[in-house]
Request: fold
Amino acid sequence: MTDREKRALTCVNYLIDHHVTRLPVEPYKIAKAYNIKMCSASYYAEQGMGRDALFAIWGNSDGSAMSYGKQHVINYNNAMPYNRQRFTIAEELMHILLGHTRDKRFSVFSQDYSPEVYDEYEHEAKTAAGLLLMPLPVYFRYHPYRSLEAIASACMISSACAFTSMQYIVKNEKELRELSTHKRIDCGRILPPQRFDAMDIWPDASAARY
Amino acid sequence: MTLGEYVNAFCTEHNLSMREFAKMSGISHAYISMIVNGKTPRGNAPAPSIDKYEAIAGAMGITLDQLLRAVNDNVKLSEGEDDYPEITMIARAGKKMSPERRADMLKMLKIAFPEAFKDD
Reply:
């Protein structure tokens, strides 16, 4: 893990320690705790700003983050599926908290992205968002005793997102186990040991499954 | 002599830590440390406002005028553009944008940051 990755993980651990008690993690509530304003595409539309113009400035149709002085705004497209919106908000939150929005090579204001910096920051924020929405204590507690799909469902993220996070965790497992927060997160109601699951009796199958 | 060097010399002479000097001036320790080191976290030279100079002069027991004469920094007369680097970014980007995109950007900013445009 690079120093930047460790820094991002420290940030995620802090958020989990201070703002997460149960699943699913609610990124909009965390944003609110930091006085970050949330602006949906519908809100802009109500104010007379069309989606096409908005998405052209964002550079995508999911969302963006902006910092102006001490004020921060997360823009998100509320027409997207709910779980996707949650991920977008978490990602944009990480862009703000990791200081990306202050960098003119990334800022939506400059409209002149440096591809290398853009890719690096996107990767960093996406990875951090994945670890925020599927916290390491939850993953380490339940995987591989529950299927990744069940964990993803409890965390309200897509299986693809959970899989990407899992790949990152597997790659850096030793360091992540050492650096992870050990906070106990309530997920009992969401992950009941109810139905038969091959993972329950044959944990090693997880490796073959992916 | 820069303001940072001046503060550092004052602290050394009076056997004060930066934290103690920060407390005396009412400025945060982080900001005083930035002034003394001559670098912001982003690697730029810090540009303290006149208010900060005033607070530092007060802590040193001298007048603002005396402090300004003692240092050769470029002092900002008010909290200006440098405190909002976004303004510079937007202004630069605006020059490269089409008129439509520029209008859209302004519209979006006015919706997202109404406080900043309340006097318009």
Observations:
- Residues 76-82 of chain B have pLDDT under 50 and may be disordered.
- The two ends of chain B are 41 Å apart (CA to CA).
